[in-house]
Amino acid sequence: MTRISNNNKSRQGQVRALVLTGYGLNCDYETDYSLRLAGAQSRRAHINEIIARAKKGLSDYHILVFGGGFSWADDHGAGVLMATKLRHQLGDQIKQFIEDGRLVIGICNGFQCLVNMGLLPGFDNVYEERRVALTFNDSGNFIDAWVKLRVNQNSHCIFTKGIKTMDLPVRHGEGKIVADDDTISALFSNNQVAMQYADESGDQANGAWPFNPNGSIKDIAGICDKSGRIFGLMPHPEAFNHYTNHPGWTRKKEELRRQGKTIETEQGEGIRIFKNAVDYIRATVMEI
Amino acid sequence: MASRLEIRLKKELVDAEGAGVRRKAREYFGFEVEDVRVIRVLTFDTDLGPDQLERVRVEIFTNPVTEESSFSPITSFFDWLIWIGFLPGVRDTQGSTAKEAIEDLLGIRIGPEQGLYTSKIYEFRGNLAFEQVNNIAAALLANDIIQQWRIFSNKDWNKDQGIGFPIPKVILNHKPQVSTIPIKSDEELKKISLERNLALQDRDIPVIREYFSRQDVLAARKEVGLDLPTDVELEYISQARSDHCNHNTFRGRFRYHDLATGHREEVNNLFKTCIEAPTLKIKEEKDWVKSVLWDNAGVGKFDDDHYYVITGETHNSPSNMEAYGGAITGIVGIYRDPMGTGKGSRLILGMYGYCVGPRDYDGELRPHLHPRRLLDGIIEGVKDGGNKSGIPTPFGLLVFDEGYLGKCLVFVTAMGIMPAMIAGEPSYEKTTSPGDLIIMSGGRVGKDGIHGVTASSEVYSEHTPAGHVQIGDPYTQKKMHDFLLEARDEGLITFITDNGGGGLSSSIGESSRFSNGCLVHLDKVPLKYDGLDQWEIWISESQERMTIAIRPENLDRFMALSEKHAVESTVIGQYNDSGYLRLDYEGRTCAYIRMDLLESDFPQWEFDAQWIPPHLRGLTEPVITEPENYGALLNEILSRPNICSRNWIARQYDHEVQGGSVIKPLVGIRCDIPSDAAVSRPVLGSNRGIAFSQAIIPFYSTIDTYNMTAATIDEAVRKILAVGGDPGHIGGVDNFCWPTIEYHPTKNPDGKFKAAQLVRSNWALRDYCLAYGIPLLSGKDSMYIDGNLEGPYGERRKVSGLPTLLFTACGVIDDISKCITMDAKFPGDLVYILGETKNELGGGEYYHMMGYTGLNVPAVNAQGLLPQYRALHKAISEGLVSSCHSVARGGLAVHLSMVAMAGELGMEIDLGKVPAVEGLTSTQLLYSETCGRFIITVAPENRKSFEDILAGASPGLIGVVKEKKELTVSDSHGRTIIREEVSTLKASWKRSFGDLI
């Protein structure tokens, strides 16, 4: 059921990722860098460039990344204006992209955009209904903090495969997940809740601050659609691209030194999220 | 027709903003408010039809999950309503993005005569009197210099009309015109300068008159239809000659007189002798110094392929009037300097330094904004400015002192990075050539910032723009930043500079010196609204604009990129080699000035500087006995405003964006203790890093500004070393903020002393930069940090800030894996002190706590310290150091606590082992602020190697890290004088501001 264009066949073996830029988005350099570390051939491109060649669609790419930032300054709701623009200018192409079995990830502002476009939660494969909102943190302010995340082992999420817990930074003012009770139950019963905020031991945070940094319902940090191919999360995996990004790295390094060991890999753990995506594309889309 | 959309959160959802207002009403005023809910208002002054309005309501402006909205009043049960909207002409960024989104969705253009305006309604429930509600509006929610508000009680509420249809549209009804200025006599020109707010320097007036009377000048002017000078021309000269643009104070002549010794010395030009000369000397010695002293920022080498860029400045007066607007304009403004350095750099980080009055000030003076509110606004301004620019803000400082009640200080510092070469040329080089097009990119021009604060005394009407106060717009600037980098990388940019102080007059005036002339068509400059006079277009300080030179053949490509990035760019003129700066408006010339005028001999500013040494000013050491309760004293000093935790600030600043965070602003096992310095990896994929830090110790100025400056520089250097920085590669940025130094017998009777303080500070800057080999990559001076505050009897009292220097140090780290943090890491590690402690508590935190200043201000022996610094760097580079922390304000007691609190481990310390001069008391050992010292922990197995490397520096082994989380300190007789749980210390340290978010 997955299709790829002839054009893609000629460049077989290359997993191609697109990181959107422009209109106040940021995080594009490190997201692009992280994807390349994960083995993808990644490209940063301005939203208007993609719209200008909309006829061509998104078929050149396998992974579409809605990265972090402040699109349209977060005015009128984080991710809202970007979602409106993309829904109207690229809605069909994105739908096609999803139908083609490719991957979409939204990080922070990108996640906010995905829920406002309705790509998430995407119940019943309807990818245009706004059922979930990301609203102001309970603290009323922006927060930069590292959090511990636990991954739902039953989720189909492609991006979190093989991961149990992970430390990542959150950096947002509007990261609290809100939805009506039915939506929340459906998210859980469908195993669409891919990631939750956890305490130091890896157990669910149960709303306790600072483990749950924004008051998100049921500590939800990231959700996917039913297929697991569309994933949105508030924490920033691209900001853990190197071991020195972790706040505890100097301690860890000294601890290892005393055990006569050294850091195993310079790559940060956040790269695993992108590597899962690259591996999936290699194993599925590329095989056909 | 006007429509008004009101949007609110659904009732069942927490209104975090409203809860914040409620909390502040209680904290600030003691008002108990039951509930506050916020309603967003969008007023449409457009010709959209009902269907279109409904469509944008549903599809753009209402989130179906969280919000409800209506074109009718949506207020519900309330006791009071406060409506707050902008005054005309104040930047309403949300109004602009709303317009952009509507145009995009409906596929229409909304004409310039139409507009969208945002405002807010706060719904209050609770038993409040009108005065209380008005107080909340005036002193918490709104600032009358940018906003207007109305209060409605439940009783007088008309639920059909609601708040009405507020449309703060600017209507000037003015036909732009150029006027000429008679120059018959110096007195006449002086008088007109005063009347018209031209701010010409009295000293400059004869030079200006002489120029406009020259026969050759008159003849040349006649050819372009000009005779007497125009207002455009005099405004231009005034801007170019201002202290801000020309640094007249630092380039002045100081007659220094030491009243104690009788020594007299004439100091000609502090800038040349104390900043330029040492920096050029160091540049000769260090090939990593690439470009200094001429561009918007300095340039150093990061690696063979990249150069870094750094600069810093202040935004004091505007922040003092409108804290949020001033601060966001400041941080967004400083970001344009690296963007406009060389051919343009990418921003990689920002830093901040705030100096304000005590947060809990309850004295009798009435500053325009209470320090608490001022600080809240400043913090928020830098938050939005930094975060929305996608630039990390990983370091900053905060100082409280009553002297800053007169005027707060807001320091902003920025760093960028650029490729070493662009289109085959070094990236730090740029020039304009005849034929290059002059392009203005970014925002449009309005009455913003014209004549600064003087405009605030003008009489307002409903549609008068409140343009003198600006609100920076990081969104517009971020788009421009991305665009310009792409244009740069395609080799399209030959010259770029920002429009800051002086606007186009400054950016074009300076850039046309390279080509030696220009012709600008002022009527081509895109305006926010009609009716600006020519001189206003020329000097307006409207933000988010860059001036760029490109070759004509690159115009199409440049414009295509600009359009792709949704950035407005306009060709407004051309550089030439005519020798003249010429401005035309609709075909007529309104300014024609020889390029060499500003290079002519304008008179130098002159100052009398009289120094009285501290002991002759009556300063002595205080008489204080040893305390009985050392532990209580330590807990108390930890909770003092200038020592305690201010984590709430760092936490709301994104310090991880761009993915290169190596050492964060807050470190330790709980990420809650401030790091000495931060480290970033600006080139992902490279293991090189940049360490950066700042220091500010204005309290020492009360004793001697020479020592203040030396100690400040040394502290910034120590902090860089503490994370692993290399003493061989440290660049500096000096940011001076000084009270007025011009003597006036009644208005500034101590001006001569303040002038001497400035001279002494500069001498120290010169001496220590030379000693440490620190080139001053950039720097700025901001004078006049005084305010006249209203007292309880209607009198006004002058309050001057402490002479203040913020010193920024930065250095390249060859291998970030060698970096270390300041937290104690493992029980059993040895605790060392590097550096000898002296009796230097003068101006320090301990004396302040006891109500004294003292006399023995720390002195820095740079020649003695430098070998120790090099040895420490070697030990850190070889991985022998487990943690390292520089000892700063509060001395050993405070900073040993920091190391223990960061690691949440205990320490057992023997004061008898602290390297020190003879005869110090325990209190002196604990609280002296002697420079040059570090607290270092070392794994026992590294003891010998560490001590071998540091042998020349004789570090003192003063104790050991303990599993038991307790700080114990024994005196030189072995008596335990402090035994405190680390958690108790931390609680004390977090007590003052721990609840702030």
UniProtKB/TrEMBL annotation, chain A:
Gene3D superfamilies: 3.40.50.880
Protein's UniProt keywords contain Lipid biosynthesis: no
A GO biological-process term: 'de novo' IMP biosynthetic process
GO molecular function: ATP binding; hydrolase activity; phosphoribosylformylglycinamidine synthase activity
Enzyme class: ligase
Top-rank taxon, per record: Bacteria
Keywords tagged on the record: ATP-binding, Cytoplasm, Glutamine amidotransferase, Hydrolase, Ligase, Nucleotide-binding, Purine biosynthesis
Annotated Gene Ontology cellular component terms: cytoplasm
Listed EC numbers: 6.3.5.3
Matches recorded under Pfam families: GATase_5 (PF13507)
PANTHER family linked to this entry: PHOSPHORIBOSYLFORMYLGLYCINAMIDINE SYNTHASE (PTHR10099:SF1)
Record-given protein name: Phosphoribosylformylglycinamidine synthase 1
Gene name of the record: purQ
UniProtKB/TrEMBL annotation, chain B:
Domain named PurM-like C-terminal: residues: 434-584, 827-970
Keywords attached to this entry: ATP-binding, Cytoplasm, Ligase, Magnesium, Metal-binding, Nucleotide-binding, Purine biosynthesis
Catalytic activity: N(2)-formyl-N(1)-(5-phospho-beta-D-ribosyl)glycinamide + L-glutamine + ATP + H2O = 2-formamido-N(1)-(5-O-phospho-beta-D-ribosyl)acetamidine + L-glutamate + ADP + phosphate + H(+)
Top-level lineage group: Bacteria
Residues bound to substrate: R336, Q470, E541, S542, Q543, S782
HAMAP family: PurL_2
Subunit structure and binding partners: Monomer. Part of the FGAM synthase complex composed of 1 PurL, 1 PurQ and 2 PurS subunits.
Full protein name: Phosphoribosylformylglycinamidine synthase subunit PurL
Organism: uncultured Desulfobacterium sp
Gene assigned in the entry: purL
